[in-house]
Design goal:
- Helix content is 59%, strand content 7%.
- The chain is built from 14 helices and 4 strands.
Amino acid sequence: MDCVRAAHRHSTYYLFDGNVVLLLSASNTLYCLHRSTLSMDSGCFETLFLLPPESALEGTDDDHPVVIPNICSRDFDYLLDYKLRHSLPLDNQEALISVLNLGHFFQIAAAEADARRALEQSPGFSAALQYALGMKNRINDWIKAGFKKLVILPIDSLSAVDIELMGLPAYHALVSTKARIEAHRKYMAYVPPPIEHSPSCPFDIPCKFGWEREWKSGVSRLLLHPELHISGAQVLENLEAVKINDVHEECKQLTLGRLRRGEVLTREDTLVREAIRSLLG
């Protein structure tokens, strides 16, 4: 093949004592490595070398390599550095992403786990990147955590790079979810949930007005704050902690209990879960 004849040997990873030749067709680079080393802890390579070859000569020399498509030599080099040299540069996000992606692709659990831990501690690990890598490598808790962080961020804080990382379906789901959450927060802010009176409440009307006054002067401001994002759970915590003038304590506890059981203050979580579910298909 012309592409094989034009291919060049890798300067480091064309080993003189290797027993299998690989061609990364995307970079037109030849590698000569050890089957046993590649197969160790890699379900993908183990299966690849167990399958009957297309030709008896496949993998034996530069003219008959095992062709691996769609992977560039830079990414593969990072994986080989990890696998053969036990090197994982914690300050190189590009390398960590390559090891994560190829660790997942080649089913090397240790590589995927080590890269994942390092990325989670990386200062440049954005919500958009966490979501994108979660989707690419089916890391469900990254998908959920990344999308939840994106929902809280102002939409104009996302760069073109962030949007490209996420992809248009995710960006559309994000914009739609944020709009639905904003509409719900405005409704909660302007329509206080009714207080539930205890049989022992001595004054129903002052108790009702006290509750509505606290909601409109305290909770509403938090829900509509342009910079501060407070969750429904935090609203409940704040109401639990504060002493509300004119509100009977038993009435307050009955109302908070009803709110915990209902969906008024947890609707945002439901909307985020629905968006993630739709993205996962």
